[in-house]
Design brief:
Elements lengths: L1 E5 L6 H11 L4 H4 L2 H13 L3 E8 L2 E9 L2 H11 L1 H14 L3 H9 L12 E8 L8 H12 L8 E6 L4 H9 L3 E7 L5 E7 L6
Parallel strand pairs: 4-5
Antiparallel strand pairs: 1-2, 2-3, 3-4, 5-7, 6-7
The chain binds coenzyme A.
Length: 203
């Protein structure tokens, strides 16, 4: 049986990081390695305004979702706390990719034009073990997030995903009630779709 719950146990962060690596092969953050991913995901459970939901089957994590109620602040604290570790993990990547510094900032930080005035929830990362895809686990994680949000305090859930060559993921968000808010190009020319979810909007 599959269960969805909060992750509070830091001892399971390695499992989360390995799952990220498996579900996002070749992605930029994956290239930075497991120590980098561990620092990143530990940040979500240490931050009071952020968290991780996990999907488990037989005590094995088969999917997770990371979110933040104040993503710009989360990002700022994370960089401050782990600046040395990130610099160390990133050294190899920086040599391989000269545009690395801009890219790592871009990987976390929204462009200035995306900064929002209203309080919102950032769905920062979601993935499901490739062996378990298409069974409703991603949907169950999104449902858990929707039910945990106080929409009197937060206007909407926001997320970004690649606009190009990413049709299944875009359709996954649409099926889960998200609406395309806008499409924009990052500084490095990557076309991104920004989706938002507001309760009752897509009924
Ligand atoms: C996107 C993702 C989280 C969806 O999780 P999931 O558990 O497979 O999704 P669900 O079973 O709840 O929903 C299935 C729907 O998602 C979409 N989908 C996306 N990728 C899919 C895949 N590889 N296999 C099946 N369906 C997929 C389809 O629209 C599908 O609907 P359908 O069954 O009517 O065709 C998962 O495929 C994943 O981890 N992908 C890799 C990581 C990633 O790209 N994450 C998003 C970053 S923005």
């Amino acid at each position: 049986m599959i269960s969805i719950s909060d992750l509070n146990d830091k001892n399971r962060i390695t499992e989360i990081s390995r799952l990220h690596k498996k579900a996002f092969p070749g992605f930029f953050l994956t290239q930075l390695g497991i120590p980098f991913l561990k620092a990143l995901y530990t940040g979500y459970i240490e931050d009071d305004m952020s968290g991780i939901f996990i999907a488990q089957e037989n005590n094995r994590i088969i999917g997770f979702l990371a979110y933040s109620k104040d993503y710009p602040l989360f990002f700022k604290h994370l960089l401050k706390k782990h600046v040395v570790r990130f610099a160390f993990c990133s050294a190899g990547a920086a040599i391989r990719h000269p545009s690395f510094i801009m890219r790592i900032l871009g990987a976390f930080k929204k462009s200035d034009s995306v900064v929002k005035k209203e309080a919102y929830i950032e769905l920062a990362s979601i993935c499901v073990d490739p062996e378990c895809e298409g069974k409703g686990i991603g949907t169950a994680l999104i449902e858990k997030l929707k039910y945990s949000v106080n929409f009197d305090r937060f206007s909407y859930i926001s997320l970004e995903t690649d606009a190009e060559n990413n049709e299944p993921v875009n359709s996954f968000y649409m099926k889960n009630g998200f609406s395309l808010a806008r499409t924009y190009k990052t500084g490095e020319g990557r076309l991104m779709n920004e989706y938002t979810y507001k309760p009752g909007e897509n009924i």
